[in-house]
Amino acid sequence: MALVIGVTGGISSGKSTVANLFHEHFAIDIVDADLVARDVVAPGTEGLAQIVEHFGEQILNHDHSLNRSRLRHCIFANEHEKQWLNHLLHPMIRQQMQAQLAQVTSPYALLVVPLLIENQLQSLVDRILVIDVPETIQIERTMQRDKVSAEQVSAILASQATREERLSHADDVICNHLLDNPLLPQVTQLHQTYLALSKQPEQSE
């Protein structure tokens, strides 16, 4: 199994942007938890079948795909339903992420997980790379990107680990808010670090 770098960060921190730089410049394989989460509830999957059995046909769009906004509404204020959904999907997502990591061909892999700390998935990775951005910038970026209010973004931030919590778990940090500290030089430096680590004996066993 290749060295696995867990990439995490709060909303609008730039996780995908950073991961894409590793892929575009150094051909590093990426496993994205958000994409996996979509795959396990795609039409025809066991995940979607169980969701429909639990919530009913009204949880589907006309094309029989999952209506995500309707599902969010069902679990938003209902902790029991949220726990049921997490209990169903988290093992499926974890299994699929591990299967994809087993197929990696690059010297190391990036596992991009927004809620890595919150869902206690540190055991899946060898190192944790935190994309760090102050909350004020997260709020500003998310309001512009998603056309939502500051209150809505604050509610999302409140459900995630704090900046301090995330940084306390970090082995490496990329700052994505400083104009005099662009991303590619930071990515390049970490790439060299990860390459060296991937060549250590315990990673090649």
From TrEMBL:
- Protein name in UniProt: Dephospho-CoA kinase
Q: Pathway, per UniProt?
A: Cofactor biosynthesis; coenzyme A biosynthesis; CoA from (R)-pantothenate: step 5/5
* Molecular function (Gene Ontology), one example: dephospho-CoA kinase activity
The kind of enzyme this is, by top-level EC class, is: transferase
Keyword set, alphabetical order:
ATP-binding, Coenzyme A biosynthesis, Cytoplasm, Kinase, Nucleotide-binding, Transferase
Keyword Kinase in the entry? The reply is yes
- Gene that encodes the chain: coaE
Its lineage reads: Bacteria, Pseudomonadati, Pseudomonadota, Gammaproteobacteria, Vibrionales
Alphabetical list of Pfam families matching this protein: CoaE
